Amino acid sequence: MSGWIFPYIKQREFTLSCMCILFQSENHSVRRKEMKPFGSVMFMALVFMNWANGYEDMNMTELLYSYGDAEYGISGRPLMVGLTLIYGAAAKGAVCLDGSLPGYHLHRGYGSGANSWLIQLEGGGWCDTIRNCVYRKKTRRGSSTYMERQIPFTGILSDKAAENPDFFNWNRVKIRYCDGASFSGDSQNQAAQLYFRGQRIWSAAMEELMSKGMRYANQALLSGCSAGGVASILHCDDFRNLFSGYTRVKCLSDGGMFLDAMDVSGRRTLRRMFRGVVNLQGVQKNLPGSCTNRLNPTLCFFPQHLIGTVKTPLFLVNAAYDTWQVLASLAPPSADPRGYWSRCRKNHAYCTAPQINFLQDFRYQMLRALTSFSRSSKNGLFINSCFSHCQTERQDTWFAPVSPHIRNKGIAESVGNWYFNRGGAKAIDCPYPCDNTCHNLVFR
């Protein structure tokens, strides 16, 4: 959907702000004259947080939908699910950056899904300095005080069989992200009144959900997007250990395959940022020893060094040209002071041949990092050659007539086939520009 810019929007219980961001679907474009505000077409608003230390602390998982046309695979308005605070968390020191209570959104399953549980860990960037974390604690990414009291459940969280065929009637949970270290820190800074308690939040949330019936699960899936995708990898085996050997337990990471790649200036912007997160928030103690006894703790925060240590079956959904990584770690303004990458990083259509070659090399690095992982029969992956980020929470990319496909299979079908052992668990797309099913993100 090109040619549409969202201003500051408030609808129902949640508010989104947007910095001139467009969503374009190459395979199903919609002309501007056909679009109506809050009308029959689905819109998406993305929120970008502040620029800090040369990278974008961006949250690309916030969605605002207006529903109607069946051609988009959507019927009616989304299910809105209320926020539940974990009142016993404070006694365990499991609090958000500002000391407020953590929370989650739960919609109960029924029928054949009554004893099946899907846990979605929210994403939303990281904070690596005191200054950034102080800013963050005054937002919903660091305080439940600012969290929406209701959020839409779409994509993998949808309650409609036509939108989410395999998981629609499961118990579906979204755990809110308010620590800034992928649910893995355990420290604090008294001077700045910051609590880095992501690991404790994870434990408190799991204890709460087990008490609400998850302990009886016969099937469970831990998922997450972006920073939540990193968390789903970090906590995958911990999640498995909550259940008996009779429970089918697997994990899904969407848009979480962040690479320790060089940026356009030859430096490693993301490594510098991850080093700050790990050191500031006390993450090292919660990283798997199987990694830290071989590598620096900062490197063990990168999924490429973690996926080989995960024993539980794991599925990776990722865009080969992940837009968050292009914008924030490959071509951030700090690495491009003359603005040579300015147009390309916002819209791949403006990339020069050398820039496309640089991005093709990034794709190659990702595929190389996945070589050993993909050999394991228990694992699955869906790596499409799109300029996108987080594709399981959006209805148009998760399951719709025009959703992205690789060899005639979409993301929802691929994930379902893998989870239920129906076959066809590994799909890697051909290089850009061969895939015309992509829903690419374009920015202004």
UniProtKB/TrEMBL annotation:
Enzyme class, broadest EC rank: hydrolase
GO BP field: cell wall organization
Keyword DNA damage: no
Keyword set, alphabetical order: Cell wall, Cell wall biogenesis/degradation, Hydrolase, Secreted
One GO cellular component term noted in the UniProt record for this chain: plant-type cell wall
GO molecular function, one term: pectin acetylesterase activity
EC number in record: 3.1.1.-
Record has Phosphoprotein as a keyword: no
Subcellular location: Secreted, Cell wall
Tree of life domain: Eukaryota
Family: Belongs to the pectinacetylesterase family.
Role, per record: Hydrolyzes acetyl esters in homogalacturonan regions of pectin. In type I primary cell wall, galacturonic acid residues of pectin can be acetylated at the O-2 and O-3 positions. Decreasing the degree of acetylation of pectin gels in vitro alters their physical properties.
Entry protein name: Pectin acetylesterase
Protein species of origin: Eucalyptus grandis
